[in-house]
Amino acid sequence: MDEIVACLEADAAGSPALVLRPWRVADTTDLVQLYREGALRRWTDSAIDDEASAARWIRNQQRGWEAGERFAFAIAAMEAEGGTGQLAGHVVLKGVVPGASSAEVGYWTAAYARGRGVASGALQALTDWAFTTFAGDGLTRLELLHQVDNLPSCRVAQKCRYELTKFLAAAPPAFPLKGHLHVRERDICRRPGAATGTVRH
Predict the structure, then answer these.
(1) Before 16, cis peptide (omega within 30)?
(2) DSSP 25
(3) Separation of alpha carbons 30 and 132, rounded Å
(4) Which helix (H) or strand (E) holds 43?
(5) Is there a contact between 184 and 144 (Cβ–Cβ < 8 Å)?
(6) Whose CA is closest to 179, among 187, 188, 170?
(7) 179-185 and 141-147 as β-strands: parallel, antiparallel, unpaired?
(8) Which of 89, 124, 153, 160 could link 109 by a cystine bridge, Cβ 3.0 to 4.6 Å?
């Protein structure tokens, strides 16, 4: 497989262009602030309460890149001069195994970024990148899971052409309630290399 691109760009309707990049230690303080919101804590299973726990979480995301099995991106607004601004969320490709046909995606967004196309823009960029980057490894299917009462996440999945294929039983503690399984199949007719995400250095 070619070298993995570590930074992508994405469009978000109603918002500035987005940059998807690996998480950095410098994001620790901002991550703690984002996790003070009750809704975010409800929809995720990460225990981020202070800078120490935030630093551990970021290090775990970095280890995923190093292992080549979990690719987590911080979502940030792109600034006019080409830099990145305020953190807007998180999107991840996980369970990547050479030769396996499927993997899983997940995401969350900061309170201020919801309803602005950030989640769908980031998910679409990640989806295109995943199918392009790992096509040679046989990846043809991406799965997205969310709790049944998380209606905004369901709308994002459908907007990005992840079809609802199955209702899931509750699986505490990660999924204390019943859930939805959405699936996106790779478009075999798509022109190779036509991912929405573009390389940034």
Answers:
(1) no
(2) G
(3) 31
(4) helix 38-43
(5) yes
(6) 170
(7) antiparallel
(8) 89
- Is residue 171 over pLDDT 60? yes
Contact by Cβ (8 Å): 60, 45: no
Average pLDDT over residues 15-39: 91
Structural element, H or E, at residue 120: helix 118-133
Question: Which pLDDT belongs to residue 8?
Answer: 87
Mean of the per-residue pLDDT values for the chain? Answer: 87
What are the tokens at 46? 């990460």
Stated pTM of the model:
0.85
Tens-digit pLDDT profile for residues 75-92: 998 775 655 688 999 999
CB-neighbour burial class of residue 114 (10 A; exposed 0-12, middle 13-18, buried 19+) = middle
Strand arrangement of the beta sheet that strand 84-94 belongs to: 8-10, 18-22, 70-78, 84-94, 102-109, 141-147, 179-185, 163-168
Instruction: Tell me the DSSP string of 134-169.
Output: TGGGT--EEEEEEETT-HHHHHHHHHTT-EEEEEE-
- Over the stretch 48-65, which tens digit does the pLDDT of each residue have? 999 999 999 999 999 999
Average pLDDT over residues 125-145: 96
